Amino acid sequence: MTEHDQSQGSQTRLLPAAPGAGTAQIDPGVRRKVVAASFIGNFVEWFDYAAYGYLAVTISAVFFPSEDRQLALMMTFGVFAISFLVRPLGGFIWGHLGDKIGRRTALSWSILLMTGATFCIALLPGYAAIGVAAPLMLLALRLVQGFSAAGEYAGASAFLVEYAPANKRGLYAAVVPASTATGLLLGSLMAAVLTGALSADQMESWGWRIPFLLAAPMGLIGRYIRTKLEDSPAFLEASEEPSQDSSPVRDLFRNHWRQLLQAAGAVLLNAVGFYVILSYMPTYLSEELGLDATRSYLATTVALATYIGFIFLTGMLSDKFGRKRVLISASILFIVFIVPAFMLLETGNFLVIVLVQILLGAMLTLNDGTLPSFLAEMFPTKVRYSGFAVSFNLSNALFGGTAPFVATLLIATSGNLLAPGWYLMGAAVISLVAVACSVETSRKPLS
């Protein structure tokens, strides 16, 4: 019996007996397996992706040696930003695969590509060894990472929403940002330990490679778990229905373009906020404010730990009060408090910095914890993966991956350390308008 036959047999045993029976008859054990597999797979992929951001200062010295540290850092974040340019392409391809042949298959291949590219980064020689070929090879592998990540967040979110009880879709989908933050948390902890235990020379020589080397074993585990998943009842039922359009992406742009625009706008605060607050912040604290590197990582680590707890609370709030109310609240809080928060960071007081980062993380969870269920519910099953992937990756390509670079550039050109805060405020305004124009999705059945 082939793996496909075994999978199909497993689906027959575990899914509801009658089409259209909904999610109520799904065995709780199956749901737990789906949640665990989604969490672990997403965690592995985003730990790989975060390692680059947290070790940006060391990577800049290895691949972009320059007497101007800020220029080297900007080049490092430039590679980070360019890798996001392939994410819309990845969103189209992974979305098509996920909607046509299944969520499980797309998710299994995305994690394999990500971890393979990450492991290869650990083996790269630096600029001192092979010159300009080193950053070019780094860029090529980062492009593979960006392409792979395009299918991860959207696929896992759609998968969980389709398996979740109707009144708990927000809570179940919150597993995705929680697992992402857990991957970042481990990356931050590892960066803090490495920078605290190793000298600068040791970090540049071999220390920075350690997180990337871990990609191989973790990725194989994640891949194995995902091949044991079953596709959701909603997807299996939708795949049996006749369709007037064989291309999910064509159907998406032809019949759901309004939702696509609203979704892309709603993602903007998540895109900028996530990468500024949870990825760029250690670099901002150490390079711009002069805080010790280890303490910078420690502050972000504390913020990430609290962020994970707040995420699940936000998921429950969105189930109770609706997606729009929670998302609008997040945008308003950022518009009012983000610039004063950056002013408090300038005090240099470590306790104040930790408290501010906890506050920023809590504000961000109101958006991040609600967004996965909101985006997945906006699109019908046959284009859900595509709609989520295209809108999410388009905003992240234009504004998320570029956020650390733009923040560094704004500070360099204006001399104003509050520039990242003003940038975040602008993103919050656009998200507020997009969400306000959308319809409430939390109490509607998945179409």
TrEMBL record:
SUPFAM superfamilies listed in its UniProt record: MFS general substrate transporter
PANTHER family with a match to the protein in the record: ALPHA-KETOGLUTARATE PERMEASE
Superkingdom classification of source: Bacteria
The Major facilitator superfamily (MFS) profile domain, residue ranges: 34-443
Stretches the record annotates as Disordered: 1-23
Topology of the protein relative to the lipid bilayer: Multi-pass membrane protein
Biological role: May be a proton symporter involved in the uptake of osmolytes such as proline and glycine betaine.
Record lineage: Bacteria, Bacillati, Actinomycetota, Actinomycetes, Micrococcales
Organism whose genome encodes this protein: Glutamicibacter soli
Name under which the protein is recorded: Putative proline/betaine transporter
Family membership: Belongs to the major facilitator superfamily. Metabolite:H+ Symporter (MHS) family (TC 2.A.1.6) family.
